[in-house]
Design goal:
Oligomer: single chain
CATH topology: Pnp Oxidase, Chain A
Number of domains: 1
Radius of gyration: 15 Å
Strand content: 35-45%
Bound molecules: flavin mononucleotide
CATH architecture: Roll
Number of helices: 5
CATH class: Mainly Beta
Helix content: 10-25%
Shape: globular
Structural class: alpha+beta
Order of helices and strands: EHEEEEHEHHEEEHE
C-alpha cells in the first residue's frame, strides 16, 4: 500500500470516474458498494475534497445520511462484473458483496472499508450535504437528467478527503 496525495493521478482518476468508480458505505455492521460516475475532486475551505453526487433513491444515500462517511475507489483493473452489479442492484435488498464475491479491506482512517481491488482509494468524511433544488437548476440539465414527478434529485456530499492511497 502506497500513501499518495489526494490529487495523485488526478487526470487518470477523473477519467476512470467518468466511466465508473465505487462508493463504499458502512453502517451497523453492513457494507454496501454503489457505482458512481459523477463527482468532483478539488479544494474547498482549504481542505482536499471529493464531492459525491448521490440520488435520494439510493440505499447509499440513506447510509450516507446516517454515517456521513464513505470511501471512493478508482479501480486500476477491469471491473465490468462489479460495475454491472454494484451499479444496478440496490443494497437495500441484496448483499452485493456476497453476490459478486468481491470483498473489502478495512479502511485506515475514516472507519469505512474500501473495495478490495487494485486502485486508488479515498477515505472521506462529509463536511456539507445539500439536496439539489429544482428551482435553481438549469432547465436544460433538468430536462436531460431529472423528472420533476419522481423527485429523484441528487444530493451533493462535499467531503473532506482524510486519507488517500494506492493498493496493488
Ligand atoms: C456507470 C454508472 C454510473 C453511476 N453513477 C451514479 C452516480 O453518480 N450517482 C448515483 O446516485 N447513482 C449512480 N449510478 C447508479 C447506482 O450505482 C445504482 O442505482 C446502484 O444500484 C445504487 O445502489 P444502492 O441502492 O445500493 O445505493 C450509476 C450507475 C452506473 C452503472
Amino acid at each position: 500500500m502506497q500513501t499518495v496525495p489526494f490529487n495523485f493521478n488526478a487526470g487518470k482518476n477523473l477519467e476512470i470516474l467518468s466511466q465508473a468508480a465505487f462508493l463504499t458505505t458502512h453502517c451497523a455492521g453492513k457494507t454496501n458498494v454503489m457505482v458512481t460516475a459523477w463527482g468532483a475532486l478539488g479544494v474547498m475551505w482549504k481542505l482536499p475534497v471529493f464531492v459525491a453526487m448521490v440520488r435520494q433513491s439510493r440505499y447509499s444515500y440513506q447510509l450516507l445520511e446516517e454515517t456521513r462517511r464513505f470511501s471512493i475507489t478508482f479501480p486500476y483493473v477491469q471491473a465490468a462484473k462489479a460495475i454491472a452489479v454494484f451499479g444496478q442492484v440496490s443494497g437495500r435488498t441484496v448483499d452485493k458483496l456476497a453476490l459478486t464475491g468481491f470483498s473489502t479491506r478495512p479502511g485506515r482512517t475514516a472507519g469505512i472499508p474500501v473495495l478490495d481491488v487494485p486502485g486508488m482509494h479515498l477515505e472521506c468524511s462529509v463536511i456539507y450535504a445539500r439536496l439539489m433544488s429544482a428551482d435553481k437548476l438549469d432547465p436544460a440539465i433538468q430536462e436531460l437528467w431529472y423528472d420533476r414527478q419522481q423527485n429523484n434529485y441528487h444530493a451533493f456530499f462535499i467531503s473532506q478527503i482524510l486519507d488517500s492511497y494506492i493498493t496493488p
